[in-house]
Amino acid sequence: MTDSTTMVIFGASGDLNRRKLIPALFMRADSTELAWQLIDPILSAWRLPQAQPLIEYAAGSWGPTEADDLIARSGMEWLQGCGLH
């Protein structure tokens, strides 16, 4: 039997919920403010005329071809898939 304060999230309960999942659902005001202090300069920089354009790619794809070009410059390549298919 569970007491009235037990919450089950995604089928999990107990210590994991109390320490990790529940705090992740609710941000304190000071945490939210700090998050925006970190993100606002990034958003502002993206709006500048000299900013590099954001590279978009289709959902479910392996990502933009620019990522392949970036890693190829160091003689590497992305491993696509798990190697079993």
Which descriptors would you attach to this protein?
85 residues; mainly alpha; 45% helix; flat
Total helical segments: 3
Biggest beta sheet summary: none
Terminal CA distance: 46 Å
Helix content: 40-55%
Strand percentage: under 5%
Pattern of helices and strands: HHH
> pLDDT average, as an integer?
77
Segments where pLDDT lies below 50 for 5+ residues? none
Structure, explained:
This protein is mainly α and 85 residues long. It has helices spanning 15-25, 29-47, 65-72. The protein is flat, with a radius of gyration of 21 Å. The model has no long low-confidence stretch (mean pLDDT 77).
Helix/strand layout:
Blueprint: H1 15-25, H2 29-47, H3 65-72
TL;DR of this structure?
This protein is 45% helix and 0% strand. It is mostly helical and 85 residues long.
